Amino acid sequence: MREVVGTRDGLPFLIGGSGTLGWDQVAANLVEPGEDVLVLQTGYFGIGFGDCIKTYGGKPDSLKVAYGSHIGLEQIETTLKTKTYKAITITHVDTSTGERSGSPLSRVLTTSKQSDKGVLSDVKGIAATVRRISPNTLVVVDGVCSVGSEELKMDAWGLDVITAASQKGLGAPPGLCILVASPRALEVFKARKTPVTTYFASWAKWIPIMRAYDNRAAAYFGTPPVNLIRAYHASLTQITKSSPSLEDRYRIHKQVSRRIKALGDQLGLSQVPKDPAYAANGMTALYLPDGLVASDVVPRMASKGITIAAGLGDAKDKYIRIGHMGTSAVNAERGDIDTIAKGLQISLTEAKDAKKAVVEGTP
User: Fold this and answer.
1) Confidence bin at 102 (pLDDT 50/70/90)
2) CA–CA separation, 87 vs 46, rounded Å?
3) d(CA 308, CA 304)
4) Share of the chain above pLDDT 70, in %
5) Which of 69, 159, 187, 211 has an alpha carbon 20 to 30 Å from 116's alpha carbon atom?
6) Regarding beta strands 87-91 and 319-323, do their DSSP bridges make them parallel or antiparallel, or are they unpaired?
């Protein structure tokens, strides 16, 4: 895992749970009650991260942008100068929107519509801005939808925490929460002045276990999901030791992403991200044409053996989300991308024909 996220000394945590457990680990172990956290809210999951921080007593300030937009570095810099933040959270790719980063759950510094758009955040640029303006602020990246399909360099970019999950780009079954913490983050945890406000997710419990695992020694706190860990190990071996290389995997994800997004253009479906430069490479979020909603398309795709998802948030019925990451993108012999492309074209035609028949009163 260290190789995948680009770190030499970061400590990986493997704990049974969904990727959401990564939020709890950050909020409970690194943020003390009353401390300010800057939350970059680029979609549904950014909202959730802020809510989690608030649940554990932190004070989230949400920096929000218009639907389909990304948060600019100047905006982040201006906000960082207003106060001392314990941490900044970045959702690298918000799966609700297919956008990478560049609700009244917390205080809002920039008011606009809630964002659910699949924007790819500029993690490298954001981290550099934080290091320059507020060097003591921890840089936390929610990489659940990006690790394995988007480039991340923890040490080179100065990241303190990367959270992930076993599914999506890492290609294993869901159910394993994966987090990598930098030495600086671990020191911040050790220096905290108040008790950790969680039991199961407490790093006081898990650090000795992970250190033991790192040294290939047995240790116990909670029963590990051995089947998932074995599957995860097999996937990591494939990613880091087999062909294509990690760098080639990123390149292939970009190629597949361009193909799906070009298909969307061909079918008259606009992307949710307003700027294609900030669209994720592991998924695509596409607005449906007027007259169609997600429930017109998602079941038709399912009937063809293809699983896609409706949107999330206020605009959930207006767009669909297509995942193309991990094995489905990298292993061309499977034909998954061809199947998705053909299925989407047919499903849209069927949905439009069905709507037309209703309007015309034909059976």
Assistant:
1) low
2) 14
3) 11
4) 92
5) 159
6) unpaired
Q: In a 3-state reduction of DSSP, which class is residue 7?
A: coil
> Hey, CA dihedral for 90, 96, 100, 102, is it positive or negative?
negative
Report how far residue 99's alpha carbon sits from residue 161's, in angstroms, rounded to the nearest whole number: 20
Please name the residue that has the structure tokens 């918000």: 94
If we measure between CA atoms, which residue out of 226, 253, 227, 225 comes closest to residue 239? 253
**Coil, strand or helix at 279:** strand
Helices (H) and strands (E) in the chain, counts: 13, 13
pLDDT digits (tens, 9 = 90+) for 167-216: 999 999 999 999 999 999 999 999 999 999 999 999 999 999 999 999 99
Q: Contact 44/208 with Cβ under 8 angstroms?
A: no
**Helix, strand, or coil here: 115?**
coil
Q: Give Cα separations from 119 to 6, 41, 69, 216 (angstroms).
A: 22, 10, 7, 39
Local structure of residue 218 (DSSP, 8 states): -
pTM as predicted = 0.90
The sign of the dihedral angle between the CA atoms of 30, 34, 35, 37 is: positive
pLDDT tens-digit map of 202-224: 999 999 999 999 999 999 999 99
Rounded CA separation 322/143 (Å) = 18
What does the block give as tokens for 46? 């950014």
One-character DSSP codes across 29-66: HT--TT-EEEEEE-SHHHHHHHHHHHHTT-EEEEEE--
Q: Please confirm whether the linkage preceding 225 is cis (ω < 30° from 0).
A: no
3-state SS, residue 99: strand
Q: How far apart are CA 330 and CA 314, in angstroms?
A: 33
Q: 3-class secondary structure for 298-344? A: HHHHHCCCCCCEECCHHHCCCEEEEECCCHHHHCHHHCHHHHHHHHH
Contact 42, 91 (CB under 8 A): yes
